[in-house]
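queue> pop job 88
queue> type: inverse folding (structure -> sequence)
queue> payload:
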């Protein structure tokens, strides 16, 4: 079972990316069409847990791609909020997607039905390894700043969790293609996490399709269209990760 005395291994994220599936890179891709993306969740206003929801989401989708879409299940963000704080994170005050993936690498993650979301802070870790849904073998970071590599991984492998700079305009996004001149791609400004579930071309604009955790009333049914190939806008490719089994 999980204990706070565990010794963290060095980060695995800087190792080379795994060999991707062969075949031509699709012009557009939306993993929702493959029925391997869970419904949009709502973290609420009192818990800054985008890092936990997006980390759970990247496991959900890539597991279903690997094992079959009938294996798609919502995983527990609360599990990560309560337990990853032992790695130095601040639960509902903010955390690290990389630390979340490190926890899932070390111990696994439970299903939402076994460890439901409460949006609470300061709770003790109630992780039960016997109810762990899956563990990952490792995780990898997309080469920092490379939207082409991000496209290749999303197009051929599956959704990716990305840390971004969320401005006030981002939080109030409603529709359309999002571009904000105040958005930074510098790693020190990254303050939010999303799941990149695809990419598309809308009119003559290239976009990323982002799944958020602010409920289905936010954005376009809970999703955003972010400007793509605009100099790594909002840092979409600055700190993006994928799990590996």
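queue> result:
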């Amino acid at each position: 079972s999980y204990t706070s005395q565990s010794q963290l291994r060095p980060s695995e994220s800087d190792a080379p990316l795994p060999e991707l599936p062969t075949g031509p890179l699709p012009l557009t891709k939306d993993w929702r069409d493959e029925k391997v993306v869970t419904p949009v969740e709502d973290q609420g206003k009192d818990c800054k847990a985008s890092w936990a929801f997006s980390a759970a989401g990247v496991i959900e989708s890539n597991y279903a791609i690997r094992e079959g879409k009938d294996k798609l299940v919502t995983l527990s963000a609360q599990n990560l909020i309560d337990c990853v704080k032992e790695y130095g994170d601040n639960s509902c005050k903010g955390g690290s997607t990389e630390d979340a993936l490190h926890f899932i690498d070390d111990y696994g993650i439970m299903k939402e039905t076994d460890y439901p979301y409460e949006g609470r802070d300061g709770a003790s870790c109630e992780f039960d390894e016997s109810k762990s849904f899956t563990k990952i073998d490792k995780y990898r970071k997309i080469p920092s700043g490379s939207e082409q590599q991000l496209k290749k991984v999303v197009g051929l492998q599956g959704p990716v969790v990305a840390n971004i700079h969320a401005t006030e305009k981002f939080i109030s996004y409603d529709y359309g293609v999002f571009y904000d001149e105040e958005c930074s791609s510098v790693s020190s400004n990254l303050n939010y996490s999303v799941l990149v579930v695809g990419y598309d071309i809308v009119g003559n604009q290239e976009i990323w399709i982002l799944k958020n955790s602010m409920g289905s009333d936010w954005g376009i049914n809970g999703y955003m269209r972010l400007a793509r190939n605009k100099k790594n806008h909002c840092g979409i490719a600055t700190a993006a990760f994928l799990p590996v089994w």
